[in-house]
Recover the amino acids of this structure.
């Protein structure tokens, strides 16, 4: 008998820092949020389609199925939900797992994709849904969920199902938008991942947003340098890397990439000088390969330049 | 026997090399990615390029095993950050998959538990 008791009541109370809202906010609902009813096991692509199209991109659910669905798992992984957002040129940002953070994003007009466990720990039923509103009078959360266009879930039930995913949720940002409560480090990683996913144009816009928000932000300057470098705009890349070095003379990464930008402009001696300063400060074995490659590149380019045609 | 083992290992090395080549960034030699700097602030250890390549190959293998169309694997991997790749490489099985599927083991367990409680079975008392 005690076993059944634990099974049915395995829910401690939700800590107030998660469940409480500051002041007494009014109800709000993003009524224009589109709805994509899900197919079997495909709440991931459906929730993603809802959030992405609400950010202003037309989406094809089947295309999202191809990007996030794992047939062998009959579902979608959290990291792939983020990855698929990047692959359409939007910036996924994981919000703080609190009701207040949820509310702040809704107030900024952005629905929030959440992961819930609609079952219990022993019989989990993991489900992606999209929060589109909070009804503060009825103490309810409004969702696009499964095949229900407007699901009303009591706040208590919602928090209980959300807690099992550690209150995991994310928003889909247009590159020119910042999150309502932007955490600098988390935002930097989000944009770097967008850049790595090959969406440099969008990433460049986001890096400029970061510089507006946090003037002189070295990661943003470095990112812009890398984007210019990948486009072959070596003088522009040089300027960005120099700006990082000005702020942090010991930035091995910035000096290494600066050396590449210089070498590609035929300034081999300067390039070598930057690289050797980088080497003096380098203590991280993870980038030893890059430093070696940079040296090889400088040597190769200068040899090619010296060789008669 | 020994020869076939050698052949097999060679094949593995070659296929890994092919997969890795497929994921090699088109970016230019020597460039340090922005993600490196973004992670540096709060990470004790950083991720080397070779680790990323190996993780990509391993995650690709797991994706294919889980039924992802081969043509889609590379694009899905490219969209993952290095940190995410390493997470999947190390613990894909432990990652939750949101999809409303009920875990069969759990359901069976519940049925057994109810049967137990109403006295039909006697599985748990012997433990």
């Amino acid at each position: 008998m005690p076993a059944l008791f634990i099974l049915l009541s395995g829910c401690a109370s939700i800590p107030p820092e998660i469940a409480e809202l500051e002041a007494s906010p009014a109800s709000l609902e993003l009524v224009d949020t589109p709805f994509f009813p899900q197919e079997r096991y495909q709440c991931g692509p459906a929730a993603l389609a809802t959030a992405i199209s609400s950010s202003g991109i037309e989406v094809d659910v089947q295309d999202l199925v191809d990007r996030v669905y794992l047939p062998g798992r009959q579902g979608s992984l959290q990291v792939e939900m983020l990855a698929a957002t990047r692959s359409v040129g939007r910036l996924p940002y994981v919000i703080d797992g609190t009701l207040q953070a949820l509310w702040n994003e809704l107030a900024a007009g952005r629905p929030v994709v959440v992961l819930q466990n609609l079952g219990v720990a022993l019989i989990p039923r993991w489900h992606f849904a999209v929060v589109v509103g909070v009804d503060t009078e009825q103490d309810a959360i409004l969702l696009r969920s499964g095949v229900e266009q407007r699901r009303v879930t009591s706040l208590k039930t919602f928090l209980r199902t959300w807690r099992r995913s550690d209150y995991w949720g994310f928003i889909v940002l247009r590159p020119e938008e910042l999150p309502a409560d932007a955490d600098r480090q988390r935002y930097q990683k989000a944009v770097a991942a967008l850049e790595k996913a090959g969406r440099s144009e969008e990433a460049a816009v986001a890096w400029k947003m970061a510089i507006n928000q946090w003037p002189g932000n070295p990661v943003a300057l470095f990112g812009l340098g890398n984007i210019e470098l990948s486009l072959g705009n070596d003088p522009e890349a040089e300027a960005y890397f120099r700006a990082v070095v000005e702020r942090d003379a010991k930035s091995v990464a910035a000096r290494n990439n600066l050396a590449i930008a210089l070498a590609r402009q035929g300034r081999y001696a300067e390039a070598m000088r930057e690289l050797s300063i980088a080497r003096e400060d380098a203590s991280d074995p993870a980038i030893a390969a890059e430093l070696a490659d940079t040296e090889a590149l400088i040597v190769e380019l200068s040899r090619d330049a010296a060789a008669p045609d | 026997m020994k020869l076939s083992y050698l052949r097999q290992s060679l094949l593995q090395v070659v296929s890994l090399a092919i997969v890795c080549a497929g994921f090699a960034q088109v970016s230019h030699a020597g460039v340090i990615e922005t993600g490196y700097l973004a992670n540096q602030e709060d990470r004790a250890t950083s991720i080397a390029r070779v680790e990323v390549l190996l993780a990509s190959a391993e995650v690709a293998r797991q994706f294919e095993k889980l039924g992802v169309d081969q043509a889609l694997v590379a694009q899905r991997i490219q969209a993952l950050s290095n940190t995410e790749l390493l997470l999947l490489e190390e613990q894909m099985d432990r990652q939750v998959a949101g999809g409303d599927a009920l875990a069969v083991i759990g359901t069976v367990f519940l049925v057994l538990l109810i049967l137990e409680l109403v006295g039909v079975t006697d599985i748990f008392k012997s433990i």
